[in-house]
Amino acid sequence: MTEIQGADRTNFDAFCGYHQTWAGQPDPLLTRTGPGTPCGEFLRRYWHPVFIAGELGDQPKLIKILGEELVLFRDRSGRYGLVHKHCPHRRASLEYGRCENRGIRCCYHGWLFDIDGTVLDLPGEPENSRSATNVKSKMRLGAYPVREYRGLLFAYLGPASETPEFPIYDTFEIPEMVMTPYAAPFECNWIQVLDAIVDPVHTAFLHHSQFSDGFGVLGEIEFYHRDRIRFLGTATRRVRDNVWVRVNELILPNFTQSGAAFATDGSRVKYFGRSAFTRWVVPVDDHRCIAYAWGNFGDRGDPMEWNTPEGMQIIEQGELIDRTYEEKQASPGDVEAVEGMGRISDHEKEYLVSGDRGVVMYRTQIKKLCRSLQRGKPPPQPGDLGEGVIPTYGSDTVIRCQEEAGTDDAEVLRDINARVMDTIFAGDALDGAARDHEIIRGLKTIA
Fold first, then answer.
1. For the domain bounded by 170-443, which CATH number is listed?
2. Range(s) for CATH 2.102.10.10 in the chain?
3. Helix H or strand E encompassing 224
4. β partners of residue 49
5. Any bridge partners for residue 184, and if so which?
6. pLDDT tens digits, residue range 302-333?
7. What would the CATH number be for the domain defined by 47-162?
8. pLDDT tens-place string over residues 195-228
9. Do the Cβ atoms of 295 and 182 come closer than 8 Å?
C-alpha cells in the first residue's frame, strides 16, 4: 500500500478520517533535548532549577535533567553537589554514596569526590602510589555547579568556561512578597507545556470556569517579541466598565510569568499587579518535564490563602493534579490539555492560526538560536536584558473605562493595551520601587 504524501494527505470532504491517518512527526529541533542534540546544547547554556532545596535530605537524590541521570547531594558542610551518576572507577551508582564533610564517597570502593568532581581520597590504594597519583591528577568525576536561591536549587549543565551570570529578575526582589517553591511534573515534552504561556487564547476556554468569569472573555490579543529572547502575549478584556490587560511573559529558554490567578478578575481597578508564579519549564527527558517555580503571594501577587500545596497546583494548571479520569474529563486543566497531545506532539500535523502567532514566534527563535550555537555563536542571556536586576512584565492592570455609545470597543481595547504596554516598557531604565512607582503613575493617567 502506498503512503499518502504531500497535499493528498488532507481531504476536506466530510467524514475524511481515512485520509488523515498518516503519522505526523514532532519537530526534532525543539523536542530533542538530550546531550549532544542542538536544543539540548542550547538549553545547557543557561541556569535551570533542578530541585527544591527543602526536599533534599541527608541522602543523595537521583535526578534526571536534559536527558542525563545525575546525583544531587548536600555534603555535611552544607555545600551542594550535582555529579554524574556513575563512579568513574567501576561505575557504581553514587545515588548510594555517603555524604561526608567534604563531598560524596562511593559505596563500592570508598572513592571520595569533591563537589567539583576532584578526587580527594582512594582508600583502597597506597596514598602515594603511581596509580593513586595518576587518578588524582588526571581524572575527574563529571560535576556541575549548583546554586541555592530562595529554596530552589539551580544548576548549570554547560561548558564551565561559558558559565553565565546567575540572572536576578525584578520579581525576586518584591518587598513583602512570599515566594513558595513548588514543582509540577508533566508526562510530556517540554515544548507542549511552554507553549501555553504565549497562548492567551487558551485561557478563555480552558480556565474560564476555574479562576473567574473575566477569564472567559477572549478580548483582544497581541504579541510582542523584544530583545531577542523575550516574548509577551497580552489579552485585553472588557469586564463591565473596566478594561483588564493581562500580560504573559516568556524569557528564553524557559522562564515564564503571567498575571495573577485569583488576585485579579477585572472587577476592580489595579495597576501593575505581578505574577502568580515565577516559573521554569525544565526538560527531564524528551517525554517528561517539570515546572519548577515559586508561587507568589501578597499584595502584589495572589492571596495568601492560596499558599498551600493544593492552591499552587490550581494556580499552576487550573485544577488539582491527582484526580479521577472522570473529574479530569469534566474539568480539564493544563495537564490534561498538554499531556493529551501525547508524550511528544506530532507538530507536523498542527494547523496553526493567527492566535498561535506567539507560539510560532518563540519556537522560530529557539530554532534560530540552536542553529547559531551549532555555528559557534553563543546564545543571548537573560543578563543581556538589563544591568543588575532584570525587569519583567508579567502582570495585571485594570483600567476604569466606560464604553461610550457608538464606539468600536475592540479599537478601545487595542488602544488601552498599547498605552499600558508602552507605559510598562518605559520603566525599563529604572529599578525596583522607582520603576514600579513610575509605571503605576503612568498607568493611572490612562482612561
1. 3.90.380.10
2. 47-162
3. strand 220-226
4. 154
5. 291
6. 999 999 999 999 888 888 888 999 998 988 88
7. 2.102.10.10
8. 999 998 888 776 666 676 777 678 899 999 999 9
9. yes
